[in-house]
Amino acid sequence: MIGRLNHVAIAVPDLTVASDMYRDTLGAQVSPPQREPDHGVTVVFVELPNTKIELLEPLDETSPIAAFLERNPAGGIHHICYEVEDIYAARDQLKAKGARVLGTGEPKIGAHGKPILFLHPKDFNGTLVELEQV
Ligand SMILES: C[C@@H](C(=O)O)C(=O)SCCNC(=O)CCNC(=O)[C@H](O)C(C)(C)COP(=O)(O)OP(=O)(O)OC[C@H]1O[C@@H](n2cnc3c(N)ncnc32)[C@H](O)[C@@H]1OP(=O)(O)O
Ligand SMILES: [Co+2]
């Protein structure tokens, strides 16, 4: 069901510092910051030849990444995103197998303009999984 790796997301306490580090120290191509009010984060995309890295900073204390950053003040890998062809079919198959779909269970439009869903980290070896329909 899952296809290519779409992105790995890293929660960071300071987006400017993290973005500068990826550009100046690691020599990567980074996007301008993009506010995502529907997701409670500001995102910088790091474009790599074979995938993307999302640097995520919380928009405020109600952000879904706020508790994670409290537990990991220096930041850390927050989620991994796999591509799927049909997000409703993927969701229904996963639910039938007992996986917990987060939120309302209805896909939202993600930062790339495509439908996304999240799966509970406790159901996938402690890794928060995002699915994106491509
Ligand atoms: C823009 C968009 C895009 O790509 O297009 C994005 O990515 S938006 C990216 C931001 N959006 C999201 O992440 C949406 C989905 N996420 C959520 O709904 C939330 O973050 C949850 C995954 C439910 C976690 O929320 P919260 O930390 O408040 O819950 P909690 O404190 O009750 O945590 C429950 C247990 O899960 C663990 N836990 C929490 N977040 C985790 C993570 N990212 N990776 C691995 N484990 C994690 C906690 O340590 C805890 O374990 P213990 O019980 O063992 O202590
Ligand atoms: Co993401």
From TrEMBL:
<feature type="domain" description="VOC">
    <location>
        <begin position="4"/>
        <end position="134"/>
    </location>
</feature>
<dbReference type="GO" id="GO:0046872">
    <property type="term" value="F:metal ion binding"/>
</dbReference>
<dbReference type="InterPro" id="IPR037523">
    <property type="entry name" value="VOC_core"/>
</dbReference>
<dbReference type="InterPro" id="IPR017515">
    <property type="entry name" value="MeMalonyl-CoA_epimerase"/>
</dbReference>
<dbReference type="Pfam" id="PF13669">
    <property type="entry name" value="Glyoxalase_4"/>
</dbReference>
<keyword id="KW-0170">Cobalt</keyword>
<dbReference type="InterPro" id="IPR051785">
    <property type="entry name" value="MMCE/EMCE_epimerase"/>
</dbReference>
<dbReference type="GO" id="GO:0004493">
    <property type="term" value="F:methylmalonyl-CoA epimerase activity"/>
</dbReference>
<comment type="similarity">
    <text>Belongs to the methylmalonyl-CoA epimerase family.</text>
</comment>
<dbReference type="GO" id="GO:0046491">
    <property type="term" value="P:L-methylmalonyl-CoA metabolic process"/>
</dbReference>
<dbReference type="InterPro" id="IPR029068">
    <property type="entry name" value="Glyas_Bleomycin-R_OHBP_Dase"/>
</dbReference>
<keyword id="KW-0413">Isomerase</keyword>
<keyword id="KW-0479">Metal-binding</keyword>
<protein>
    <recommendedName>
        <fullName>methylmalonyl-CoA epimerase</fullName>
        <ecNumber>5.1.99.1</ecNumber>
    </recommendedName>
</protein>
